[in-house]
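yo

u said u wanted the structure for the complex thing, so here. seqs first:
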Amino acid sequence: MTQLDTHGMLRGAGLRVTEPRRAVLEALAGLPHASADAVHARVSQTLPDVSLQTVYNVLHDLTGRGLARSIEPGDHPARYELRVGDNHHHLVCTHCGAIADVDCVVGHAPCLTPDDDHGFAVAEAEVMFWGLCGDCKHAVAVPSPASVHL
Amino acid sequence: MTQLDTHGMLRGAGLRVTEPRRAVLEALAGLPHASADAVHARVSQTLPDVSLQTVYNVLHDLTGRGLARSIEPGDHPARYELRVGDNHHHLVCTHCGAIADVDCVVGHAPCLTPDDDHGFAVAEAEVMFWGLCGDCKHAVAVPSPASVHL
DNA sequence: GTCCTTCTTTTGAATTCTTCAAATCACGAC
DNA sequence: GTCGTGATTTGAAGAATTCAAAAGAAGGAC
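structre next:
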């Protein structure tokens, strides 16, 4: 595993370097798409005194400074990932909330620029694929009519 | 306004026809992208005794049967819309949660089919554009660095 | 038209994720 | 090393949504 320059990342973002923050960054590196709870659990392994509240604070700071990104899959708790340079989207399991990365479906700019922006200042376009993950595919009974929507 | 065949819609979906359900359908027709609370407020105008809980129940039933669709914009409460035949996506205001429809960015199937589905049974692809709506554009101070993501 | 079964609705409370607030603590500029 | 600002802790609050049990109504059968 590539060593993470947590110090440089935090300082570069104008944040103070603290153990909780370094630990959250490392947790995110080790746990892609982790929930706040999962991050807290992982952080607690090395820093047992870090509170869940602190994890929320840190995640908030990291996303605010662009170091991390939050994914909010509908009715499931928010997930977080390190903001990596590459462009990718997400597969979300409607049953268990599992998330997988999808490489960007190449340079189809149309997906980014709505024909009519209704006066919105569009900052970001997000593509999310909903479905059942491998595990839930077998576990779940009803195979709902897959209504594909674009 | 085109009259809504609420009776036919419900029966066609295998649901009993009740006043609360007809009222919710009509509320959705009149209030695109309404929250459960907004639907409840609208329904209460004609049926003051319908509880918020019932609205949640009905919305759940309607989405389950494919009559309605729920949009879950991150940290804002869920919104609902009648499931219309056309394909469109949504502009969401990151500040106030306002939602606008965007016509489908034409037939770019690539947006629909991830290269690697990681074993997922993909049922739906959703595109969401995040930004500031016309009102909030002026109201909000900081114009954050528009990091476009595809 | 009436009855009966099943599905809906109501009422009231609980759950979960997330945020707020005040006091203590520590990073890091000087 | 000192100091000021920013970070963390603790404890509790908040909001959207869901659960559960009892009462009520839809609609098919007769």
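Chain A touches chain B through 52 residues (CB under 8 Å). The beta strands of chain A are 34-35, 68-71, 79-82, 88-93, 99-103, 121-132.
cya
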